[in-house]
Amino acid sequence: MKSPHSIREGRAVRMPLSVTAEDMDLYLHLSGDDNPVHFSDAAAQSRGLKKRVVYGGLLVSAISRLLGTKLPGPGCVWQSLSINFRRPLHVGEQAEVRAAATYVNSETGVLRLKIEILRGTELIADGQAQAGFPPSEKAAS
Asked: Which of 10, 27, 96, 138 would bridge 106 by S-S if both were Cys, CB 3.0 to 4.6 A apart?
């Protein structure tokens, strides 16, 4: 576990993200979302997209992984997420999930984060998340 002083306003973390065709197939199976823009390049192109688009749910799952493993990390309880999808991410493209703590309350164990998903310098999605962190993680304000 992180030290109690590792969660502070301004703390930022990054995590690489790349979604494979296998990831897409697994998500299709789990979610039942059979929208053709997610599994057919032709269908995606008919909507003006370059090729099939990564499920938004897989982008959200990357945010969940970041919250549960990096910031705040193990023991976090996700409380809210607001996300804006700005551009599509395509299967196999390299991206990065970034989070920065914008608010930390050590008394209540509440952390708010600015979230971004980028492909190079191009913004794919952005938003905010709030999570609770366990007492052993509470930071000094």
From this structure: 138
> Taking a C-beta distance cutoff of 8 angstroms, is the pair 54, 19 a contact?
yes
Percent of the chain that is helix, strand, coil (3-state, to 5): 25, 35, 40
CA distance 94 to 19: 8
Counted residue by residue, the chain has a size of 141
CA distance 40 to 16: 25
List the alpha helices (DSSP H) in the chain.
Answer: 21-31, 41-46, 56-69
Residues 138 and 106: beta-carbon distance below 8 Å: yes
Interatomic CA distance for residues 107 and 64, integer angstroms: 23
Q: Is 12 helix (H, G, I), strand (E, B) or coil?
A: strand
Q: pTM of the entire structure?
A: 0.86
Write the Ramachandran bin of 92: left for phi over 0, alpha for psi from -120 to 50, otherwise beta: left
- Per-residue pLDDT tens for 24-81? 999 999 999 999 999 899 999 999 999 999 999 999 999 999 999 998 888 889 899 9
Cβ atoms within 10 Å, residue 100: 16
